[in-house]
Protein 1
Amino acid sequence: DTPDATLVCRKDRAQDVRRVVEALEQQRAQEHVVHRTVRRPWGTYTVLEEGEGYKIKRIVVNPASRLSLQSHHRRSEHWVVVAGTARVTCGDRVYDVGTNESTYIPPQTKHRLENTDASIPLQIIEVQSGPYLGEDDIVRFDDDFGRK
């Protein structure tokens, strides 16, 4: 049982889960590898919807935490703040974006999302657009958690 999936079966059939995983692998489905909600050292993101050329996420950044300084080769991102205030680095600019405000991150632009508030989580909706939206399209330049 996880927030995005629940297995219901007879106890004597629980080992048959492997068959389900094999079927997902044959269909090249990612559900057995990538969950809808993903935990990161800075908080979580939940994929709300995705389709050809777009992906929509809810991102929650823990108090006083930030994502890596990064860029993406093939996608842009549009961030709408729904709770808290985001400190945004976009290229050479650093600015704050408040609740019900938004900002745009062009492809190949160094950017960072930060929650400077030490008491409440920052919540944003991110709309990604582009020809490729995989999580491996990321170049990290600086990361508080030592990730490459």
Protein 2
Amino acid sequence: GIAQQENFLKLSDPTSKYLGNGWTSCTASQEDKITIRNQLTMTTGLDDETGDPYCTLATCLKYKADAGTRWAYHNGPYTLLDGVIENATGKTLNQYHNQKIKSTTGMDGLFIYQDNNNVYFSTARSMARFGLLILNKGNWNGTPVLADQQYYQDMVNTSQSINESYGYLWWLNGKNSYMVPGVQIKIPGSFQPNAPDDMFSALGKNGQFINVVPSQNIVLIRMGENPDSALVPFLYN
């Protein structure tokens, strides 16, 4: 969002503009249809059922459907957003994050690669700071970290017509149905039925949660060990 705000990229750009041709095993025409927005919304059409879902190598990223026609939680394609940001801005992800978010909010931590995952190692207080930044629509004590309010609204609302409960990497409560990783069915109702309808959540690796509830002015953080083997432990949340 910040990179688009600063005119380094557009969400409508094909991912290959920043990762180069052949970043997947798709044909050129199939690959050209995948945009940054598809990566943000889990609609790349790449096959999430083959081999290691965390793998970011081209040999692991195989065609399943045209981009935008299928929703599937898939780690590899969204991890590659790191490379998109780095190649668009000319800065490493840590450099860009430090400059644009950490320096203003007072967060600590950094991204460290673990195999194919780029994991942010930090503290509960820093996670809460990020949650407060999002609760306040990208503003930190009067400083607009994310000034593009259209991006913000798109991020925390339904981003595509397939999974109502998914924005731009955020899970959305209070929708008519939701989908879960590994299953191509729509489940009726809210994904967190006991939480306020306006809650939206960052449900991270191994059960690290940021729940944001604008109507109650609440940010709820959970850190700890993995409670189960689910890719996204939403039931635990």
